[in-house]
């Protein structure tokens, strides 16, 4: 039982990641750089302003602590009830005024480490004095590890986050003063939002402006790439080719990336054009030589065949002589066919005008198959053509030669008894002629050059079975001259030639 082959995990092809083009990469790098700079500026600005605001808040807190200590020292000794909100203290006896507490400021006054709490109040933004809860007092006691003067610290209270500082008056009285940090955090939040908005705007402007500048800068490269693509699509294999387009002089200035690429491409095109001209001259010289030689060979070949026939008719030859005359006629006929093939290839290469008429390809197929059956009865030929005519424009004699050469190729390169299938059909406005055989197939190394001239399946043979190596090259040349294509697919047990020709009116 056949099982599908499994690809080895180590040899299975990995999907290739799609690379971004240069323009996208440059814009991405530019935007990323600006983003990093904006982030660094934002971090430094935030840290600098936070340090400044912390210093200002601590200075403000120390002033508030001084005012609280001053109020405690000038307050009446009997005070109010413990933990109850109290009005602002009355002016001292010496006539000086006691500073007012700020909005949100709280004061906590205690005597001794275990003494009764005298006052714990705070003022809301409207100026109303409220009692500080026992929970907040506990938080303050935990935040202030020990009583006495010390640096300010931060305490999270139920009324908000506060910077607090303690002052020990030296007589067992501890005054704790705090200021809210909401204003500082609000300022930092506004700063962060402003920096974020400015950074986003900078990234958008950088992306749009950078993309426009990079696109304008790299636009000449697009022209260079387009020119190179046009040259790459130009058929350079044969015929006269003109490469007139060049990169403009404005884009070939040395010392710049675009200029260096443009100059290099112009030099490359000059070299390619020079090589094509040399190749064209060589092809024309070879074509003229083949045409002249073929024309010159026609006369002596005709004379050889004529003298051979005259010798057969006028001379009394023995068996060896008759065999020699037969051999002479066969070889002269083969040489004449080779000369005619070379002349045909020369005319096709030079694109000489040919007679063109509407040709029923079905009739050509049937006639050619009948001739093939008569010439090679040891190869059964199966043919199938549509009932309706398949009409193509062209030269009927040349179109017939395509099928004759393909059938001859199948007979000569397959064992006796190998079946040959000929199919003709219409597909997508074109006529498709398929000639297939069940022979051993064509060597994979020979497939790329099977349509080249003088290509033989067995390189050691030279003209065996009348093979010249021109049949398939003539078939391709005639097909291309009629605006068609010929393809080959071969494997052991199946070789298929497919000829595609345009239909009349297509």
UniProtKB/TrEMBL annotation:
Broad EC category: transferase
Histidine kinase domain: residues covered: 292-505
Membrane spanning stretches: 24-44
An example Gene Ontology molecular-function term: protein histidine kinase activity
Region of interest called Disordered, as start-end residue ranges on this chain: 68-105
Enzyme Commission number(s): 2.7.13.3
Cellular localisation: Cell membrane
Main location class: membrane
Every HAMP domain range: 215-277
Domain of life of the organism encoding this protein: Bacteria
Keywords tagged on the record: Kinase, Membrane, Phosphoprotein, Transferase, Transmembrane, Transmembrane helix, Two-component regulatory system
Reactions the enzyme catalyzes: ATP + protein L-histidine = ADP + protein N-phospho-L-histidine
Protein name in the entry: histidine kinase
């Amino acid at each position: 039982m056949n099982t599908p082959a499994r690809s080895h995990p180590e040899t299975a092809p990995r999907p290739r990641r799609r690379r971004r083009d240069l323009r996208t990469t440059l814009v991405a790098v530019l935007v990323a750089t600006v983003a990093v700079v904006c982030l660094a500026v934002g971090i430094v600005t935030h840290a600098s302003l936070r340090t400044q605001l912390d210093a200002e808040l601590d200075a403000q807190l120390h002033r508030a602590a001084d005012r609280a200590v001053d109020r405690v020292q000038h307050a009446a000794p009997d005070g109010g009830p413990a933990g109850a909100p109290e009005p602002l203290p009355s002016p001292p006896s010496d006539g000086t005024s006691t500073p007012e507490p700020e909005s949100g400021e709280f004061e906590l006054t205690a005597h001794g480490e275990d003494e009764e709490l005298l006052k714990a109040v705070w003022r809301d933004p409207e100026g109303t004095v409220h009692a500080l809860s026992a929970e907040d007092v506990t938080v303050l006691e935990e935040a202030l590890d020990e009583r006495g003067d010390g640096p300010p610290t931060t305490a999270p209270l139920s009324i908000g986050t506060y910077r607090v500082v303690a002052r020990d008056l030296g007589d067992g009285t501890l005054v704790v003063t705090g200021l809210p940090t909401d204003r500082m955090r609000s300022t930092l939040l506004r700063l962060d939002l402003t920096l974020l908005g400015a950074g986003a705007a900078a990234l958008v402007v950088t992306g749009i402006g950078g993309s426009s500048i990079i696109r304008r800068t790299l636009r000449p490269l697009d022209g260079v790439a387009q020119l190179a693509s046009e040259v790459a699509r130009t058929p350079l294999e044969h015929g006269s080719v003109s490469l007139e387009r060049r990169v403009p002089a404005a884009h070939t200035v040395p010392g710049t990336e675009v200029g260096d690429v443009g100059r290099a491409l112009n030099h490359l095109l000059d070299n390619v054009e020079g090589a094509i001209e040399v190749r064209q001259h060589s092809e024309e010289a070879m074509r003229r030589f083949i045409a002249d030689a073929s024309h010159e060979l026609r006369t002596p070949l005709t004379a050889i065949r004529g003298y051979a026939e005259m010798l057969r008719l006028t001379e009394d030859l023995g068996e060896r002589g008759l065999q020699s005359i037969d051999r002479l006629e066969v070889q002269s006929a083969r040489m004449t066919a080779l000369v005619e093939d070379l002349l045909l290839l020369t005319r096709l290469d030079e694109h000489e005008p040919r007679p063109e008429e509407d040709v029923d390809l079905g009739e050509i197929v049937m006639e050619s198959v009948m001739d093939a059956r008569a010439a090679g009865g040891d190869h059964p030929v199966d043919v199938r053509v549509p009932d309706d005519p398949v009409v193509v424009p062209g030269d009927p004699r040349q179109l017939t030669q395509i099928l004759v050469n393909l059938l001859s190729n199948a007979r000569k390169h397959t064992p006796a008894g190998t079946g040959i299938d000929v199919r003709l059909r219409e597909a997508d406005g074109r006529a498709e002629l398929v000639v297939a055989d069940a022979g051993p197939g064509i060597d994979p190394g020979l497939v790329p050059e099977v349509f080249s001239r003088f290509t033989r399946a067995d390189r050691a043979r030279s003209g065996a079975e009348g093979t010249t190596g021109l049949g398939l090259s003539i078939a391709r040349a005639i097909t291309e001259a009629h605006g068609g294509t010929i393809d080959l697919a071969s494997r052991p047990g199946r070789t298929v030639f497919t000829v595609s020709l345009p239909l009349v009116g297509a």
